[in-house]
Specification:
mainly alpha; Arc Repressor Mutant, subunit A; 2 strands
């Protein structure tokens, strides 16, 4: 998969993957999506984000996770 909106620059945010050369990391976008489940609230907090930025940040995060099964505690 090609990520056209994700950029990495050692001089910006210590080389962490960012959105369109902004000082907004992919990690922060993923955290913000979790914190603001209503998209309008997310866009109010981060007006520079475009829908495609959010989609690509989530896809980038998913592509960089290991696909393995983790044992979870049983619900009581």
């Amino acid at each position: 998969m090609v990520f056209t909106r994700i950029t990495c620059d050692l001089r910006r945010m210590n080389g962490q993957p960012c959105i369109r050369n902004l000082r907004l990391t992919v990690r922060r976008v993923v955290e913000a999506v979790a914190a603001y489940p209503v998209r309008q609230e997310l866009k109010r907090e981060y007006p520079e984000l475009e829908d495609e930025d959010i989609r690509e940040a989530l896809a980038y995060a998913a592509a960089n996770l290991e696909d393995k099964v983790l044992e979870l505690a049983a619900a009581k």
